[in-house]
Write a structure and sequence with these properties.
The protein has 610 residues and is an alpha/beta fold. It is built from 19 helices and 26 strands. Strand 9 and strand 10 form a beta hairpin. Helix 9 packs parallel to helix 13. The structure holds 5-amino-5-deoxy-1-O-phosphono-D-mannitol.
């Protein structure tokens, strides 16, 4: 994981760029942070264990003029979180920041030690610095040294390097991990992602695997690993830099929960045509899906839960069978897919290693591939045959919220497209489904008004040590998602179950110390059965928090502990609504417990290791 930023340009701006960039990259890891600036008296490095805040207090009152500069925020893999292992890493006149893993670092380290290099950290990164320095000492230029060093390195990486020998250059290289280049006025940047540079420029180049970028303050070149120049397009990014600020909210998570009406609106916009009763998803034609006889959806964490909801939607509307797999398992099962299988890879970041490898495996076996992702030009977007973007805007909080609802919208639209394309739906029904999704942003506005009610509920329940979440049908994955949200931001143990499974084991856990959150919007089939499941919990003295549709509350008075009333919705829309109170519940419980909500311990927003 880790976030990197590099800058070459105006000496009095470098520190500011590095700090602002790191603030926006901190979601990628926060075990330590560091910067390096090349000034008139050489390279100065300041680093610190823990969050960026620690580094900032070290930098207070320090004047660091110079250019170029490097910055890094770390999610530890090799070597414990500590100042010693914090980046940048130095060898002689070479300074390096790195995101990724060098798989053959031990052999290289042994070799370098034999040559007399001393290691000052336990990281794999330090071998990169020593290798580049070693080639430089042999007379290679910085660019050549990077090229030669990387011929020896195995693994995945995005790296930025500066050297006192060539003070007017930054060299960056990427393999498998994200690295973008951005162009300002007399300044050039490298960063792990686009939001890091948004305060300074909108002009961005998405570097490709194997690209080596050579930055000078007024120009840049990109070459392939052999040194041949390659051309890459410059994109103008239309994200508003304000969307990557907290905008008055205490945490990004809360802000992003409240951004859901806009996120779904932006994801629907331009894709449904009410008058024609049609759905348009760029790149997906009737002919492309005509021979698809099976769909496999893969993802991790919250994106996996979106796949589970997607299965219900696709099967219901198109009758195409859908399997769902954890991306981390898919690749190792010798998956049975062929050219008639459509594999859908779902990933907010578009960089998750497990999902990317699953996608590559599906392609290798001849499947058609489709990505659902939130990040333009991300790895998974580039690797798949077709991409449908969620337009949720940048999601900074480590807990996925608005990207999840946007993923569900894409699944809904895709199911509708497939249903229409297969002649499975009457015109009237398709029209109704389109109207239903168009009404969603407003329904979300409604459900968000529960904010203070859920905050009060959290105040009653935040001291419990365990939670169970139950749901059925489309809302079973929502129970899983509710439990995941609670776990990751509040550190409370929580389990999600299909409500019908309770009696097969988990019911043994129920007593008066166990809050059970039941997701039971009133729908055609499953509501009655859920009422039975709630009774089973109450009989065993469990404390039931019931999420149900307006109008059905009366029948529970007197025997359920707490209610949350959500708007009544059509069945396929219900998960998009019922997840919101669960996101809020997790947020407010975490808030009462005083955890680090946007950057929960041990987690990172982008998981680029297997
Ligand atoms: O970027 P991705 O959607 O591929 O990320 C997958 C998971 O790492 C992610 O959903 C994770 O579970 C979130 N922290 C959940 O809130």
């Amino acid at each position: 994981m880790c976030g990197i930023i590099a800058y070459i340009g105006k000496p009095d701006k470098t520190l500011h760029v590095l700090i602002e960039g790191l603030k926006r990259l901190e979601y990628r890891g926060y075990d330590s942070a560091g910067i390096a600036v090349l000034g008139s008296s050489g390279i100065r490095i300041v680093k610190s264990e823990g969050k960026l805040l620690n580094l900032l207090s070290r930098l207070e009152g320090v004047s660091l003029n110079g250019s170029p500069g490097l910055g890094h925020t770390r999610w530890a893999t090799h070597g414990v979180p500590s100042e010693r292992n914090a980046h940048p890493h130095v060898s002689g006149k070479t300074v390096v920041v790195h995101n990724g893993i060098i798989e053959n670092y031990q052999e290289l380290k042994d070799e370098l030690r034999r040559k007399g290099y001393r290691f000052n950290s336990d990281t794999d990164t330090e071998v990169i610095a020593h290798l580049i320095e070693d080639f430089s000492l042999k007379g290679f230029s910085l660019e050549e040294s990077v090229r030669e060093a990387f011929k020896l390195l195995e693994g995945t990486y995005a790296v930025a390097v500066i050297s006192e020998r060539e003070p007017n250059k930054v060299v960056g290289i990427r393999k498998f991990l994200p690295l973008i280049l951005a162009i300002g006025d007399g300044e050039v940047f490298l960063a792990s992602d686009i939001p890091a540079v948004l305060p300074f420029t909108r002009n961005v180049v998405l570097l490709e695997d194997g690209d080596i970028a050579i930055l000078e303050k007024n120009r840049f070149r990109i070459t392939d690993p052999e040194g041949r120049e390659v051309k890459r397009d410059v994109f103008s990014i239309d994200w508003d830099p304000i969307t990557v600020e907290k905008g008055g909210y205490k945490h990004f998570m809360l802000k992003e929960i409240h951004e859901q009406p806009q996120a779904v609106l932006d994801t629907i916009r331009g894709r449904v045509f009410l008058e024609e009763g049609r759905v348009f998803l760029k790149g997906i034609e009737d002919s492309w899906v005509a021979d698809v006889n099976r769909i496999v959806a893969v993802g991790c964490g919250t994106s996996y839960h979106a796949c589970l909801v997607g299965r219900y939607m696709i099967e219901k509307l198109s009758r195409i069978p859908v399997d769902v797999d954890l991306a981390s398992e898919f690749r190792y099962r010798e998956p049975v897919v062929d050219e008639k299988t459509l594999v859908i890879a779902v990933s907010q970041s578009g960089e998750t290693a497990d999902t990317s490898y699953a996608l590559l495996e599906a392609k290798r076996r001849g499947a058609k591939t489709l990505a659902i992702t939130n990040v333009f030009g991300s790895k998974i977007a580039r690797e798949s045959d077709v991409v449908v973007y969620t337009h949720a805007g940048p999601e900074i909080g480590v807990a996925s919220t608005k990207s999840f609802t946007a993923q569900l919208v894409v699944f809904y639209l895709l199911s509708l497209f497939l249903g229409i394309s297969r002649n499975r739906l009457t015109d009237a029904y398709s029209l109704q489904l389109i109207k239903d999704i168009l009404a969603l942003p407003q329904l979300l506005q409604h459900v968000l008004r529960l904010d203070s009610e859920i905050s009060a509920l959290a105040g009653e329940f935040y001291k419990y040590k365990n939670f169970i979440y139950l749901g059925r049908g489309l809302n079973y994955p929502i129970a899983l998602e509710g439990a995941l949200k609670l776990k990751e931001v509040s550190y409370i143990h929580a389990e999600g179950y299909a409500a019908g499974e309770m009696k097969h084991g988990p019911i043994a856990l129920i007593d008066e110390k166990m809050p059970v959150v039941v997701v039971a919007p009133q729908d055609e089939l499953l509501y009655r059965k859920l009422v039975g499941n709630i009774q089973e919990v109450k009989t065993r003295k469990g404390r039931v928090i019931l999420l149900t549709s307006k109008g059905s509350v009366n029948e529970f008075y007197g025997w359920v502990d707490r209610f949350v009333e959500i708007p009544k919705t059509p069945y396929l829309i219900s998960p998009l609504i019922s997840v919101v109170p669960l996101q809020l519940l997790a947020y407010y419980i975490a808030s009462y417990r005083g955890t680090d909500i946007d950057q929960p311990r041990n987690l990172a927003k982008v998981v680029t290791v297997e």
